Every structure is written in C-alpha cells, then in structure tokens.
Amino acid sequence: MSDLKLFTPTRVGAVELKNRIVMAPLTRNRARAEDDAPFEIHAKYYGQRAGAGLIITEASQISPQGKGYAWTPGIHSEAQVEGWRRVTDAVHAKGGKIVLQLWHVGRISHPVLQPGGADPVAPSAIAANSKTFDGERFVDTPRPRALAVDEIPGIVADYRNAAENAKRAGFDGVEVHAANGYLIDQFLRDGSNKRDDQYGGSVENRVRFLREVMDAVVSVWGGDRVGVRLSPFSNANDIADSDPQATFSHVIKVLNGYGLAYLHLVEGQTGGPRDIPEGGDLAALYGLFDGARMGNNGYDRASAIDAVKADTLDLVAFGRPFISNPDLVDRLLQDTSLNALDPDTLYGGGEKGYTDYPSLAEGSIAAE
Ligand code: 8OZ
Q1: DSSP per-residue letters across 86-113
Q2: pLDDT for residue 366 is more than 70
Q3: Are the CB atoms for 169 and 161 separated by under 8 Å?
Q4: Which of 167, 169, 209, 314 has the fewest CB atoms in 10 Å of its CB?
Q5: Residues with beta carbon inside 6 Å of ligand 1?
Q6: In ligand 1, which atom is closest to the CA atom of 177?
Q7: CA atoms within 13 A of residue 327's CA, in its CB half-sphere
Q8: How confident is the model at residue 367 (pLDDT cuts 50, 70, 90)?
Q9: Whose CA is closest to 189, among 203, 175, 209, 210?
C-alpha cells in the first residue's frame, strides 16, 4: 500500500474513521473549577481537532474518588455529561469521531483532591514515588489506603455509571485507561499489587479488576465501541512489574475475549524515550491482539506512514503535535511545517495555548 494509507478511511469495531490518525488522550487541566465539567472552550478545542480519524478525550475521572489532579474533567455528574455533550456535538458537526477515556487514578492523588479529605486508594498501601498538582503546588503522592475487597464492586459500578454517562453525552465509544501507573495498572503489576486475595498474586488474579471493569463497560457499549490503553514498558508514576512481557501477554489474551475496537499501546516510556527494556517485545504483544492496533509515543509523519504501510499498526495516535496543530491531519497530508508547542500552557489556564494555535489557513491570513 502507498504512503497514503495513513490518510485513508478504516473501520475499528463499529466505528468508521475517515483516516488512521488519532488524537491521543491529553490531560490539559482546564475543566471548570467548581464542578470539574468541560464547557465552551473544550467544545471549541476538540471541534478544532475533528480532522483526526478519532479523538480520544483527555482522561476523565469516573468518580470523585478517581480524581488525582486539579481541574481534570469528570464523567460522573449531570453538569459533566452536559459539558461533554457540547464537545461531542462540536466534533460530530465537523464529521469527527470521539471516544471518552475512563480514568481512576488510584494512588496518584492526594487527600486535598479526595472527597472528605480521604486518603487515596490503591490495591495495596504502597506509596508511589510520584507527584501530583493540587491546584496550587506539586505535592508528593502519599501512602494510599489498601482497598477492602468489598469496596471493589462499588468502583466497578462507578465505571459502569461513567460508561453510561458517556453514552448519554453522545460519545462514539470509550477507552479504558489501564496505563501510566493509575488504578488498573496498579492492580496489574506486582510492584504495586501485593494483595493476598483474589485480586492479587498470580497474573490471573491481578487482571481480575480489569476484567470486572471490562465486563461492566462492555455491557454498556458492546466490545466494538470500547478500546483499552496499556503502557507495558513504561514506569510512569513509579509503576513496576517483575515481568511486564508475561503480565501484558496475559492481559492482551484476556482482552481478546471482549471483541474490542482497538488496543492502544504507549510504546516505551510515557511521553519519553521509545526504548523497550531487555526481554520486552512490543511486536509480540501487538501480535497477540485480535483487533485494531493503535500505537503512540513520538511518532512523526515518516514513522507513522511507515508503521501503517508496513502493517505494524492500524492506527497512529499523536499527542503533543495535536496540541499545537489543530489541523494536524492536513499538515501531515500536505507535508507542511508544524506549529511549535508552548510548554508553559500545557496544563491549566484558559484559551491561551489551548484554542489559539492557528490552522494553516489562519496562519497564512496572519502572515499576510
Ligand atoms: C499528564 C499529566 C497528568 C495526567 C496520563 C492522564 O499520563 C495522564 C496525565 C498526563 O495518562
């Protein structure tokens, strides 16, 4: 197939995409402070990026307990559903497709961000050597409280409720965030999961929480409108596993049972080097999966074209380039220059560095 394959339509599960370029989930910390709801600026921002074959929203907490940073959006209240409805309407009006990323941070939080000032929860009471942002400063993530086994059904119910809310908000599907050291990843890995009940120990037990989440989410959406994001070889948020190749081989075989739309892998370190540790084999992991393969991390025009042309990937997700280039697909197609990213406006704030990056057409007007 030609270099143009990246730009051709495809179907993942039940969702028709106009091209194979995906906007990766990107935390921007601009939700309304009083209710963690998205609003007009989010509709504008995502609408501007509707040229993507698929948009994956920024991670959105499934419950107040699932929140780990100031100003991240939720999907557990009516105000949030209404805010997200504006976003999906804006994207659909421009012919785009959009799925919501479902998120519970687990131990990557802080009492000031938790309901009633409670300790964050995790599979085991082991602190991550990480930081979060509480709205004023960066703070260390404290030692979490280990979840009691009878609390887990409530969290699974929160996932189900969030999946239903996403449906009411008009999304085309959902992505389960099982990457980057957050709650599901904390269960999957033996560095953060030291439980001695049915949720810990063997890899079969460590994947149980993800299975229950998938059962709940797939019961709402059907597998063909659900994707999953994993970061097998990333140490984001101090996550660790003694044998990630074995752990994630098992995880992917389990995921095959759901007939998913896609599997989304962060290749290497989240937002960092693409290096894979000794004994790691990404191609083998992709090879185990029955559905569409989405890759992310540091792709550029040439490597994305090559990956799709060589059939290494079905879809390529771009993160930072989509922040600074609302019309990234046009720019890649035309092989034109990209706007530079302003690192100072990544997290928090308003429209500056959010909705004011120019498209090619606007850029040329400005230059005249
Ligand atoms: C950057 C800052 C805060 C959160 C992830 C949701 O890494 C995030 C995130 C990224 O998956």
Answers
A1: HHHHHHHHTT--EEEEEE--TTS--GGG
A2: no
A3: no
A4: 167
A5: 27, 59, 69, 180, 236, 270
A6: 11
A7: 15
A8: very low
A9: 203
Report the alpha-carbon distance of residue 221 to residue 218 in Å, rounded.
5
Residue nearest to atom 9 of ligand 1 (CA): 27
SS3 call for 43: helix
Of 243, 240, 239, which Cα lies nearest the Cα of 278? 243
Phi, psi of 15 (to 5 degrees): -110, 125
CA-nearest residue for atom 11, ligand 1, is: 180
Domains of the chain are 5-362 (3.20.20.70)
DSSP label at residue 135: S
Buried b (16+ CB within 10 A) or exposed e, 27-62: bbbbbbeeebbbbebbbbbbbbbbbbbbbbbbbbbb
The residues that are catalytic are 182
What one-letter code names the amino acid at 39? F
DSSP structure class, residue 272: S
Which residues touch 237 (CB under 8 Å, ≥6 apart)? 108, 128, 130, 141, 180, 181, 182
Write down the number of H helices and E strands in the chain.
12, 14
Q: Whose CA is nearest to atom 2 of ligand 1?
A: 27
The β-bridge relationship of strands 131-133 and 121-122 is unpaired
pLDDT in tens, 33-65: 999 999 999 999 999 999 999 999 999 999 999
Name the token pair of 239: 């996550």
- Check residue 364 and give its pLDDT: 55
Q: How far apart are CA 159 and CA 31, in angstroms?
A: 20
Q: Are 159 and 216 in contact (CB under 8 A)?
A: yes
Pick the closest to residue 156 from 209, 225, 98 (CA basis): 209
CA distance 328 to 337: 10
